[in-house]
UniProtKB/TrEMBL annotation:
It is found in: Mitochondrion membrane. This is ATP synthase regulation protein NCA2-domain-containing protein. InterPro entries: NCA2-like. Pfam families: NCA2. One of its GO terms (cellular component) is mitochondrial outer membrane. It comes from Talaromyces proteolyticus. It is a multi-pass membrane protein. Keywords: Membrane, Mitochondrion, Transmembrane, Transmembrane helix.
């Protein structure tokens, strides 16, 4: 729920309380059985019930709880359709004289006024956001000499054209004057010409001297400051309008708001709806006068409201249906005419004092691109084959990356999960260790058999020797090797020394294969881990690329997130500044302008939070924002809320 929706919803709840109070008063009057009626004509009860049911359906169509905040076009459609389709209620005095019907008509008018207030607040807040963007644009130009110089170059053709047009107008006026005075004598013409030149020189000497001294750069900076000043005045007027609408709308005669009372004087409530309607029309009407100062604007609105309200109270006839009918017609006029006029005047002022048109801003790069277009086309044509090769190689690289680093690791991982033998990790052949072990056993048995003493002719114990070899015991071979080392020449001639060396080499090979087999078993036990490791790089690169493209195209995160973070930080700073200035005043009350700026900054915070804060904390932020907007708690409490927002959400802003 946005800020404006929350405001309209609160007003809607208060109007529902008034409606319940009206129902209770009718029930109390019926219970007492009073024969005294508020109106002379008593309509048919069945007709009255049908009329009230139709009105309740209309009231429900404007309820903020069921329909939310209606937009400008939809609200205007509801009101105009109501005027056309229910003329018998609003224009038939015999039907409208019923007290119950009259009360429901007032409730309908009150809800329509609340919805219209929401539409106007939304429009003014959007205008403030647009004006802020234009002011930020000029601030960015003024903070850099380079940007100021670039702006001077951008606007040089338009300034030259304006100057040429002024000269043309002057020459044309002079020609017309000469034509009219052609019948006069030469002496009279020259005398008048001399007087005109002398007066013109005297009037414009100071200005021309200043302009002659100033450079185009300095003149542009002066022009930018004037435009920014005009935009700031327009911003203050719109902010003051928001503050006036929020402070004075639906206020009772003593200045209290509807939400401050449990029971309301119905006559005062009707006057508040009437006064609020006049207020909305008066604010939109006086916003068109951009030359008025802030004080003049607030004074004009106040005087106009008092005069119109008093005048309409005097001319209101005894027909009580006239006043709610006038309110509805005034609301339709506001939606049809006043809002459109305000939008038109604001857009004209923003175009007049805001950033230059796109043609002025981009004619330099567009001209550069146009001038270099032929060169660019020539380069593309001459290197067409190379460009096509680069494009094809880039596409092939993407395809190979996707196949070799994403699809293939996924296939291997699936094979590992299914225990596919072709996908198992192996760093040695399956039967290599077994064959080398058996060969070593045979070599040792043969060596021991050849070196048995003559007393042991029955043959060696093959099983015992084999068991010793499997355990790595080559004692018999090593003893013969040590003996041959004493007489290496004899051992070499006999071949025993070489055989012993070869057996030890085979033993080393078997030991290495046993170690490698252990490593191979370890790798096989972690096949799934290695499968995920092989898949991770391709998945990470693909995910990062797709997310970057999605963020860039979606425009929700990425570049916009950084901009929105800057906006929300600036809004928090401005809110803190506004509240600090209010706390330093004797009464600690915000002016209309400051209150409007406060609501505007809260609106910016609400909008920017959609792009910067995660959904898990977005609800908490909106609750804190609602606490911040509760002016009834006082400035000190609001300052505490600002501090809570700063430390609570500093991670994301």
């Amino acid at each position: 729920m946005s800020i404006v929706e929350r405001i309209v919803s609160r007003l809607d709840v208060n109007i529902d309380k008034v409606q319940l109070q009206l129902i209770d008063e009718d029930a109390e009057q019926a219970r007492r059985g009073s024969s005294e009626k508020a109106y002379a004509n008593i309509p048919d009860p069945n007709t009255s019930i049908q009329t009230i049911n139709r009105l309740k359906a209309l009231v429900q169509s404007l309820s903020a709880d069921s329909k939310g905040l209606l937009n400008h076009r939809k609200l205007l459609g509801v009101l105009t359709q109501t005027q056309r389709s229910h003329k018998d209620i609003f224009y038939d005095k015999a039907v409208a004289d019923d007290a119950s019907v009259y009360q429901v008509v007032w409730v309908f008018a009150g809800k329509a006024a609340a919805q219209t207030l929401g539409v106007i607040l939304n429009i003014l807040l959007k205008h403030l956001s647009t004006i802020d963007d234009e002011i930020d644009y000029w601030d960015g130009i003024l903070t850099s000499n380079f940007y100021t110089g670039y702006y001077t170059l951008q606007t040089a053709p338009s300034r030259a054209w304006s100057r040429a047009y002024e000269v043309y107008v002057g020459l044309r006026n002079t020609h017309l004057l000469d034509t009219r005075q052609s019948s006069r004598t030469v002496t009279q013409v020259w005398s008048q010409f001399y007087q005109l030149v002398q007066r013109n020189v005297q009037e414009n000497f100071a200005q021309n001297a200043t302009n002659a001294v100033k450079s185009p750069f300095a003149r542009c900076r002066t022009q930018i400051r004037e435009k920014r000043k005009s935009l700031k005045l327009l911003k203050d007027l719109n902010a003051s309008a928001i503050g006036i609408l929020l402070e004075e709308s639906f206020a009772l005669g003593n200045g209290d708001q509807l939400s401050d009372k449990s029971t309301v004087n119905i006559s005062e409530w009707r006057n508040s709806v009437h006064r609020s309607t006049i207020l909305m029309e008066s604010v939109l009407q006086h916003l068109k006068n951009s030359d008025a100062s802030l004080k003049e604007f607030e004074g004009n609105v106040s005087n106009n409201i008092a005069a119109q309200f008093q005048n309409e109270q005097h001319i209101t006839t005894k027909n009580n249906t006239l006043q709610p009918l006038n309110i509805i017609e005034r609301l339709v006029s506001i939606l049809q005419v006043r809002i459109q006029d305000n939008a038109t005047s604001t857009n004209v002022l923003v175009r007049q004092h805001g950033r230059p048109s796109p043609i002025v801003r981009y004619w330099i790069p567009a001209s550069s691109a146009l001038l270099s277009l032929s060169t660019l086309l020539r380069i593309i044509t001459s290197r067409k084959a190379e460009l096509l090769t680069w494009i094809s190689e880039f596409g092939a690289t993407l395809i190979d990356f996707w196949g070799n680093w994403v699809l293939k690791p996924i296939e291997d991982l699936i094979g590992t999960i299914r225990h596919d033998e072709q996908s198992e990790i192996a760093i040695m052949s399956r039967n290599s260790l077994k064959a080398d072990q058996e060969s070593l056993e045979r070599m040792v048995v043969d060596f021991v058999s050849d070196h048995l003493p003559s007393s042991e002719r029955s043959g060696p114990d093959v099983e015992m020797i084999t068991a010793q070899v499997r355990e790595g015991d080559l004692t018999a071979v090593l003893k013969a090797y040590e003996r041959d080392l004493r007489k290496p020449f004899v051992g070499t001639i006999r071949g025993d020394l070489i055989r012993a060396l070869l057996i030890q080499i085979q033993k080393t090979k078997v030991d290495v294969e046993v170690a490698v087999g252990g490593i191979d078993a370890l790798l096989k036990s972690q096949e799934l881990v290695f499968g995920f490791v092989g898949l991770t790089p391709g998945i990470l690169v693909s995910y990062a690329t797709l997310r970057g493209i999605g963020s860039f195209l979606g425009n929700r995160k990425g570049f916009r997130a950084g901009t929105e973070k800057q906006r929300i930080r600036r809004a928090i700073r401005n809110v803190n500044r506004i509240l600090s200035e209010a706390s330093s005043t004797p009464k600690g009350i915000l002016s209309y302008r400051d209150y409007g700026l406060f609501i505007s900054e809260a609106y910016v915070m609400s909008q920017s939070s959609q792009y910067t804060l995660p959904r898990s904390v977005l609800g908490d932020f909106k609750q804190d924002l609602a606490d911040l907007m509760d002016v009834g708690k006082g400035v000190k409490s609001q300052m505490n809320v600002v501090g809570r927002i700063q430390w609570m959400y500093s991670r994301w802003i």
